[in-house]
Amino acid sequence: MKTKLILQMFAYAFIGFFLACSDDEVETEPPQICDTPPCGPIIFDRVETFLITSNGKRWEAKIWIPAEYETNKDLPSIYLVDDEEQHYPVATDEFEKVIEGCQRIGGLNVLVITVADLDPNMNVVNDFQEFYDIYKDIVSYVETNYTDNDSRTLIGRGSAASLVLATLFMEKQETTLFQHYIATTVPGLAYFNEIMDKGNFPPEKSDKKLHFSFDGESNYDLNMRFINTLSDKAYPWLEFEWAEYPDMTFINSYPTAYADGIAFIFEE
Asked: Disulfide-capable partner of 223 in 16, 40, 101, 214 (CB 3.0 to 4.6 Å)?
């Protein structure tokens, strides 16, 4: 009986010591942020995130990788400019709507990329270079780690579409990032009419395509002036298509505008 009691006391003491030790703080390795793939195997038909640095600031971006990428790395890419509008409810599904627009076209496989947390107050006059540098660094990252196919499309709506148009006009041919542009419901069209009237942009360009559209809430006269000016200029380097969605609004027109623009860019 005495032996049994001693064994029980020893067991209780051991358990107490173990529990006391378990309360000590255990140092663990912090989670690793994936800066350069592969941090693991690429899974297809999914979204991956990555980080880039532009002008000393870190940016998180994401990329849609279709199943086709498993056997064909030479895919074109679409870059979505997605910022928060100041006067409208924020759409959170623009990235998905770009992917859906691609999936409507049989046999089309593309990478879709966007960056998070763009400043919605960026404007084409004061902030274009900062915006362009961010996307230049993202394009460089994607080119190094995913695909070096130089077919790149820039797409956006609202104030983001103003940055898309600014890229079309302001890019220099020798350092161009994009060949194709999709812009819907663009504010500030007077600025673009002015630079076309004055020729205030690099004139040497080649093989560009633009799909431009506007909805029923947009200023019809301003949009038509832009369309007519662009048509009258007849730039030899630009293939241009436009569309009006008079029965739609800023809130619900972009899925159709994106799908129509993607079809114009990629369908033969």
From this structure: 214
